[in-house]
Design a protein that fits this description.
The structure is a homotetramer of 347-residue chains. With 347 residues, chain A is of the alpha/beta class. Chain A has 11 helices and 13 strands. Chain A has helices at 16-25, 46-49, 66-72, 90-94, 110-117, 124-128, 151-165, 195-198, 212-223, 257-267, 317-332; strands at 6-11, 31-37, 75-78, 99-101, 130-132, 145-147, 169-180, 203-205, 231-236, 243-251, 274-276, 294-300, 307-313. In chain A, helix 1 links the parallel strand 1 and strand 2. In chain A, helix 1 packs across helix 11 and helix 7 (151-165) runs parallel beside helix 9. At the A-B interface, strand 7, strand 9, strand 10 and strand 13 of A face strand 7, strand 9, strand 10 and strand 13 of B.
Amino acid sequence: MALKVIKVAIVGVTGYSGLELLRLLKNHRYVEIVSIHNTANHSQMIAEAYPHLKSMYKITTTPFDPLHIMQEADIVFFATSSGVSKDLVAPFIAAHFPVIDLSGDFRLSAEDYASWYHKTPAPQTLIDQTTYSLADFYSASTTNYIANPGCYATATLLALAPIAQHHLLDKHNIIIDAKGGLSGAGKSLTTASHFINANENVTMYKANQHQHIPEITRQLQKWQPNIEHIQFNTSLIPINRGIFISAYVKLNEDTSLDVLHRLYTSTYYQKPFIRVMPEGTLPNIKQVVGTNFADIGLAYNQDTKYLTIVSVIDNMIKGAAGQAIQNMNHLFGFDETMGLELIAQYA
Amino acid sequence: MALKVIKVAIVGVTGYSGLELLRLLKNHRYVEIVSIHNTANHSQMIAEAYPHLKSMYKITTTPFDPLHIMQEADIVFFATSSGVSKDLVAPFIAAHFPVIDLSGDFRLSAEDYASWYHKTPAPQTLIDQTTYSLADFYSASTTNYIANPGCYATATLLALAPIAQHHLLDKHNIIIDAKGGLSGAGKSLTTASHFINANENVTMYKANQHQHIPEITRQLQKWQPNIEHIQFNTSLIPINRGIFISAYVKLNEDTSLDVLHRLYTSTYYQKPFIRVMPEGTLPNIKQVVGTNFADIGLAYNQDTKYLTIVSVIDNMIKGAAGQAIQNMNHLFGFDETMGLELIAQYA
Amino acid sequence: MALKVIKVAIVGVTGYSGLELLRLLKNHRYVEIVSIHNTANHSQMIAEAYPHLKSMYKITTTPFDPLHIMQEADIVFFATSSGVSKDLVAPFIAAHFPVIDLSGDFRLSAEDYASWYHKTPAPQTLIDQTTYSLADFYSASTTNYIANPGCYATATLLALAPIAQHHLLDKHNIIIDAKGGLSGAGKSLTTASHFINANENVTMYKANQHQHIPEITRQLQKWQPNIEHIQFNTSLIPINRGIFISAYVKLNEDTSLDVLHRLYTSTYYQKPFIRVMPEGTLPNIKQVVGTNFADIGLAYNQDTKYLTIVSVIDNMIKGAAGQAIQNMNHLFGFDETMGLELIAQYA
Amino acid sequence: MALKVIKVAIVGVTGYSGLELLRLLKNHRYVEIVSIHNTANHSQMIAEAYPHLKSMYKITTTPFDPLHIMQEADIVFFATSSGVSKDLVAPFIAAHFPVIDLSGDFRLSAEDYASWYHKTPAPQTLIDQTTYSLADFYSASTTNYIANPGCYATATLLALAPIAQHHLLDKHNIIIDAKGGLSGAGKSLTTASHFINANENVTMYKANQHQHIPEITRQLQKWQPNIEHIQFNTSLIPINRGIFISAYVKLNEDTSLDVLHRLYTSTYYQKPFIRVMPEGTLPNIKQVVGTNFADIGLAYNQDTKYLTIVSVIDNMIKGAAGQAIQNMNHLFGFDETMGLELIAQYA
């Protein structure tokens, strides 16, 4: 069957995720970018403001106009900061026009959103029409409005999915120590992102208060309903890209590393983007940076009965733009790897 | 009382810890370095091989000779790799000559050493004559042979001491996620320490097998005897110096962050090198790099009942050479801060 | 016209350049990799030794056998260290089989090679059958054996080409201060590549002795015959990838920044991989890392009459594997951008 | 002779240089800090705002009041941004009260300041009462108001002094390629100092327009009057601290590396902070970071007749606070090394 090129609009194109969509979609053979929009909502040649795009994109940003987008494009990506898309998407949802939202605005219930994002949520009726879609577990019954998971949530959920789906987690002891690079902190100029403060440093931030906590918990509950809380902290480390999850969990029943490793291998056997490391080895961040892979490794401690799960992703790709494209591939019936067959730089 | 200058010998001076002893002792007013020895055991002007020492040290390395050292010096530091000092120290111990050993050779029982270091241990009779001395909890009854704690052990023990000393730890759930820079991996050329492999990367190594595990457990047991095991993993992060400990623990009894914070504050009130952060704030690595401080902060999660303890040190100073000097100050009756009043570089 | 897939063999696949060829060729639609060979010359699943290739390559290294390669493949890449290909290529040259050599073995005359590489050169008769091909100035008359330029040479030559081709360089004052990341120093474990020595440091190495000096001089002479010598130094900076050339040159005649900028723009107008920055702006490394671009900017000093030319490339792509693929595209009549339409990561 | 403790005031204490003064002066035995002042001019416990100072300084910032400072202190340091001290120092100069100004406000003539800083200069009469003091060439005839040199100027002038003082520089070809870390760019939040933009990147900035150019030229002219212009560019490299100067110069007369090396060695023989590297070796940044040293090395190219001079300093110490303290030591008759006997961290 001949594939048809789909036309794509991007809102929030000058944020890190928007620029990453531009970068990745360049190599998707069946995508044409037809309109791009920035927050300032003015017109500029994108390649003038962003020299790395010179000669690759001749397109100009234009003011955001939902009707125009729906006429021109087949799908719109929102790569806006949290708090933006919730006020912009209603016309698209009303028209059943495909939307993939990379922000946190539609990942939580209105109540949770208000509590964790400290902002006014979208109306619950809008939220109800969206689907939270971890792309590697995409289900065809989803609506046209996809809430793309958060970066830490993606890495954590992929680390825990096999055991949560089998109800193996001891609900009292789910500890996630997450480490992430500076691109996760976004483009705005803050004390934390000043080179002098980030370089040669490690800082824990938002202890017990990270907005991805309810997103992770809610999805875990879908797999293993008795789960109530997770212990989740994030630390900023001096790298540009990458998330490294160290999850420490106890299990509900006696088992062995062998059995667990088989469980992970079988869960992810048909998932092209999840690579379970050979027994006895753990992944590092560099082997996934620049790719849409999530690599996962296990270590079991006979003394403490704790299972250590390490999961690594590129936060800008698997944790944002890449997963969004994977979700788009699902929505439009493309092979889910299209445009995403990327290998990490070894050196 | 007029203080007397003490004469110092250093064995293993060209390793990272030995060079750090040279650097720090330069600013100790009551220390004179009288002899230095390297593993290769040949003579060289130290400042020729190490240009950063040019014009600061005119001393030459000489072959290792215990009798000569005991004639010339008042104390000897062993800054050798593990497996070296155990074969060299007998004459010093026999003579009750002061030794501070920065290596792991005398921190464990012979049995534990064999299990965790995979090397032949020192005779248990020699081990019995040494004292493991966490310098901030130095006790005057120690012998003249001090086993200086390991870097990760120091940061972890200082994080847990106040609650372990009050028997508050739930022994089943003591989880330590440690992150450390490359200086901790030593000077030898390995795949892991190649810039290309370390930079822009995070790697977990020796999962459940780090040789500091028994060292930590043994000391915790002295404080809270029912402790059996800890869950302890270390990850390599791309910085030169620094350790960042994220400890996740449950407590034996209901308590509050307020009470815990007071416990930490009171435990460390008279300890000049331990700084407990104000309630609600956590320390970062940069505020201690270049110093002998251990900075500690707390966060309590009402949902999971987990207490997060963050502790940060400079692995080369508080975790090695600085603590060794602090122990030396104790041994010789100097103020423990002498030569160690260091402030971190802000920029 | 339907394009035909070409079959590729890679010798030296486990070095940085070989792994980069594997990475980039994955996204070349008309390439199939049919055989790979490492220096150790034994068989291994490449994806087992290099986890970042897991699920992307199922191929196994096999012993090097020229006849077999010529039967199976349409072209062979040598991504070996200097001193290797010179002893292996004779059968390919004899058979007029296409070869692209990424090493320095065939870039210089036998005499220059001996002087600058301190190794026995290939026979001059073999050297005479090769073509040094700066891919952006590829000329169809080249033979089948292409010597791919060195990374520093590429960045320097592209910086100077427009003025050298117009004989504008004052031959007495051609000063190139080059800065490069650690991937340029290769995979072997050296003191210089230890993280502790490279991080937070800058080191000038091989002052006046870099082996790319004769390569640059020889090519400049082809453009502007009166050139005799260049002043060329390289410094190692703590980044993984990238070269930053600061060239300081005087010109033979009075001119203006305007005129020079037009000269650069017109020289590179039809060259898809060379991007001349708008007048008044200079490129940085990040805008080309991950791409085959060379970005060039100019600044002119009215007081000193020196023109500053900044040129930046990704040493592993434009300076090695990418340029080799560009040369391959030329050889086989593909569009030169095929497989190389890459955009830099902004974050 | 018993030395007397001097009392110090610091204006602009919360900038990078001010904080560095606090850090270094802690280990100056004959200094007591009696008052500190920030730009915001309000009162705060400095150790509360800057946790790295906790337990080291109990002092509080107070509003700036010249009369009060002159009553309390023996000297005042201005560690303010450019454009601040010029409006504040008149009362001190009028009273012949010792001032060391780390900013650029009094390093240039009023005319040059206006041209290069694009700000209104101090009155020329005030400027005339100040002394620009490169501390290693301090002359006792200086006034009480010292303009402390800029960081790039210091590293460049120390690189060129021996040959300029002997009038050996070919005035047409003085090329300085300077590289510096992020602390030199200051504390304010800018696009350039965002970690994502600085890390894994190199950027040339202020090409031909750096405000240290006239400062360097003016001092060179004092040594070698025929010098008119220098070619000087700076590039930002991803390190916290350090300046690496690559100077490329031609000489007025035929000479040899041997002769030049002896010239450097003899010029700096009695200067405790200038270390000339052995012939054939060049310094790197790490060997001086954390110290007040400037390390200098030479390489001579027989083909091009260019002499390469590499000079490295810690921009925050030798390039700012350390040199200011060295100047203070001169002013008050202390040994110039007092408080500055610092060794670089090797690891």
